[in-house]
Design goal:
Ig_E-set, alpha/beta, endoplasmic reticulum, signal, Rossmann fold, 3 domains, Immunoglobulin-like, 26% helix
Length: 507
Amino acid sequence: MRRLPRALLLLQLLLLVATGTPEAPVSAPWSLVWGPGLQADVVLPVRYFYLQAVGSDGQNLTGSPPGQTLFKVIIKSLSPKELVRIHVSKPLDRNDGTFLMRYRMYESVNEGLKIEVLYGDEHVAQSPYILKGPVYHEYCECPEEDPQAWQKTLSCPTKEPQIEKDFLSFPSINLQQMLNEVPKRFGDERGAIVHYTILNNHIYRRSLGKYTDFKMFSDEILLSLARKVLLPDVEFYINVGDWPLEHRKVNETPGPIPLISWCGSLDSRDVILPTYDITHSTLEAMRGVTNDLLSIQGNTGPSWINKTEKAFFRGRDSREERLQLVQLSRENPQLLDAGITGYFFFQEKEKELGKAKLMGFFDFFKYKYQVNVDGTVAAYRYPYLMLGDSLVLKQDSPYYEHFYTALTPWIHYVPIKRNLSDLLEKVKWAKENDEEAKKIAKEGQLTARDLLQPHRLYCYYYRVLQKYAERQSSKPEIRDGMELVPQPGDNTSLCQCLLKKPLREDL
């Protein structure tokens, strides 16, 4: 077994004497490293993997190692002849003994990559990790021709409860009925519907209505998927507006049609995809987007014991209960700090309630409790709040996102009534039951870390398309008015597909 450098041992010893902490020094060889970023054939916009720091006593560390973070990652091409641009971020300390390592490739490599994970100058776990090529970057159009193999490589779950539930209403999908109905019901000038056909792994679309700018998010994720795996031939409509649209019940005549939306509700039948916000976060991580689902995990504010013991909220005036929050905050400043940062729906209230200054999202986690109140629909900040290490107080809501089915009140979050009448009572409960509140916050965080991993988003999108295609009663077509959505140009780096092709005896 490798030994820790003497200087590091002395540093750890001095820190232990100073703090009185019984935490053992980090053991590089005993620490653990795992994750999809260590697999060559898991192609993602940002590749990532995890590290669990283990002490020299063999126990997992449950907090940040003392002193400056000494973990680092070095990534190089296996071949000195292949120069490759890779942005490697500093390890994100998740404050519980684990670290998140991220890198974004801007070119592909044929020979492969060498990933060194170091603590000081010592290799961690099984470092160096060798990823045998080819290793493709995000804009490399080299789809895996076996979707089952692709899903297995990504460790996609065998079932997604929300998808199973959504498609119960649609044992068969009549494309002709949709072609007749959707433009009439939802395609007026105020519409936000985009009609897609995927054929031979190419994406075609036409817009219905003028509020379809958010198609840039659906375009981008569909193109990204098509670069990675052979998609089924499928034709569908996506609602890129806020509200779910299909409110007809299964026993009505005619029954509901399977519109696809970002958000669901208890009285609608839309098929749900991850929100445009989660999608954008996954695609644009490490490219100037600060509040992405990975970076948030290393910016969760002070440790639990040092957080301000108040419930916190900042946001726009997109629902009346948010105004109530501000009023409650004024009356109970010792329990709640709430403010409206922008007025649009209730502009007449600005003079009465005041306007709060904008705050960086990472600063939210200076507070021990986070209040999650709906916006126009489900508040799309919720997954980000879950990934922090504050306790989320979630308003009861008819709206839901794709991952809510995996969450349970009092295990992953503390529920509050829709009219907020019990909010102050729940904050008091949390203050009086600190250990239980901390436990719920941690359980919610761990579950969100699992559910909201970028590779899980790709699995989810693919499974929805697959389920949809299986139920189509006729073949999808490229309709009048549709245009090809082109793959982005990749002029900066050559990309040669070296996927293994099945042997054909007739060649």
